[in-house]
Amino acid sequence: MRFSQYTFYAFVVLCTAFLLLNCSVSGGQGTDLVNIESETVQYGDEILFHFENTTEDTVVVLTTGCGTKSENFLPSFVIEKRKNLEWIEAGAPNCIAIATPPMKLAPGGSESVQVPADLGLEKSTIPGSFRYVFDIRYLRKGGYPVDTRLPMEQRISPAFRIMGE
């Protein structure tokens, strides 16, 4: 069987699009540290996040402060939205005023937390596909988190869809 040059280019474009969409859609689906209960929620619902430490060291999920990509702010988490096959910050930084202790997870340990799906989001950004990027760090001897975060692919939640009211 012989293919024309255009058929070959169309095949390459379709395969590339398939790979990009699968990689982009999964954006976080591959992490085994962070999982979610539901892939679709309504604006105003809560999302149940499950954290399971699959590393060989104790980790800590920081749960207070203002979430931003900048290292100049207090650590916490930030919500991102998929736009044109990229993840961009969505809404205001998430500032948690209630001081809650960080979640310390020994190797194999797990914990869950509920977060409002619309935390920091304007209604105009809904509907869409979103994900959270958490601040997860190793715990150093003495019980304090190290200064650097775990790699990004270990700190992102699976993508989820927020529907309108």
Q: What does this molecule look like?
A:
This protein is an alpha+beta fold and 165 residues long. It contains 2 helices and 12 strands. It has helices at 5-26, 152-155, and strands spanning 34-36, 40-42, 46-52, 59-62, 65-66, 77-83, 86-89, 95-96, 103-105, 110-116, 128-138, 160-163. Strands 2, 4, 6, 7, 9, 11 and 12 form a 7-stranded mixed sheet that branches. Strands 1-3-10 form a 3-stranded antiparallel sheet, with no helix packed on it. Strands 5-8 form a two-stranded antiparallel sheet. Strand 6 and strand 7 (86-89) form a beta hairpin. The longest helix has 22 residues, at 5-26.
SSE pattern, N- to C-terminal: HEEEEEEEEEEEHE
Which class do the helix and strand fractions yield? alpha+beta
N-end to C-end Cα span: 53 Å
Q: What is the quaternary state of this protein?
A: single chain
Main β-sheet description: 7 strands, mixed
Number of H/I helices: 2
How large is the share of residues in beta strands?
A: 25-35%
Regions with little confidence, pLDDT below 50 for 5+ residues: 5-30
Q: Please state the CA-atom Rg, rounded to the nearest Å.
A: 18 Å
The average pLDDT value, as a whole number, equals 74
- Based on CA inertia axes, which overall geometry fits? elongated
Topology, number of strands: 12
